[in-house]
TrEMBL record:
Organism annotation: Selenomonas ruminantium
Transmembrane segments: 6-26, 33-56, 68-85, 97-116, 128-148, 160-178, 184-207
GO CC term, one of those recorded: plasma membrane
Protein keywords: Cell membrane, Membrane, Transmembrane, Transmembrane helix
Recorded topology in the membrane: Multi-pass membrane protein
Lineage: Bacteria, Bacillati, Bacillota, Negativicutes, Selenomonadales
Compartment list: Cell membrane
Protein's recorded name: Uncharacterized membrane protein YeiH
Transmembrane helix as UniProt keyword: yes
């Protein structure tokens, strides 16, 4: 595993998910402690689950405080920016776009760190562990964030989300014998970003079964 590439995407994902977690906490009217908890949980939750599944114990987030400290700093900065912004409240559509942007960058970045962690284990099928760890790392923190905020996890019902991580990880893993690790990581990043933003822009969704069956009974 290319350690520098892993660290770069880990920092990118931590910052992006800490911002999205802090924004959700502010929207749910949490205090500063709640904002920090939600930001940190979003930023490191998926990675901790990934490490346990990969047999890395204790999880890296508990051995190196960088991600925790970075998420706390981001939570404080977002809180201060929200509290002391000198201009009229920002448009809700812009805030939603800002949230989706950070959430998507976090999704793509953590797909890569999970995938690279799986590839470094060199155990079993060359696709199963990297792909699953990529998806779990990408969506795990967001699921914990939404549960703590008393929201249905977005991954279960909203636009193409986990599917974007799954697609990026599968395609990238299929190229592992043809390109170097850095190229594979950036291909994954671009694929996840493009698919996720395309889904947001064009309103793409996965198949939803009709939910009005009970009305016809």
């Amino acid at each position: 595993m290319d350690s520098l590439t892993w660290v770069i995407f880990d920092i990118m994902g931590t910052i992006a998910f800490a911002v999205s977690g802090a924004m959700v906490a502010i929207q749910r009217r949490m205090d500063i402690f709640g904002i920090i908890v939600l930001a940190a949980l979003t930023a490191v939750g998926g990675g901790m689950v990934r490490d346990v599944l990969a047999g890395i114990t204790p999880p890296m987030a508990l051995c190196n405080v960088t991600d925790f400290m970075l998420s706390i700093i981001i939570a404080l900065l977002v809180s201060m920016a929200y509290s002391f912004w000198p201009y009229p409240p920002l448009n809700k559509n812009f805030m939603l776009w800002l949230y989706n942007m950070f959430d998507t960058v976090g999704l793509a970045s953590f797909t890569i760190t999970g995938m690279l962690t799986g590839l470094s284990r060199e155990a079993g099928n060359p696709y199963v562990m990297p792909v699953l760890l990529g998806v779990i790392t990408a969506v795990g923190g967001g699921i914990l964030r939404d549960l703590m905020a008393h929201r249905m996890p977005a991954v279960l019902y909203k636009e193409i989300y986990a599917t974007a991580a799954l697609f990026g990880a599968v395609v990238s893993c299929s190229l592992q014998n043809y390109v170097d690790v850095v190229t594979m990581a950036w291909i994954c990043f671009v694929l996840v970003i493009l698919l996720r933003f395309s889904a947001l822009h064009f309103g793409w969704h996965l198949f939803h079964p009709r939910a009005d069956w009970h009305k016809r009974r």
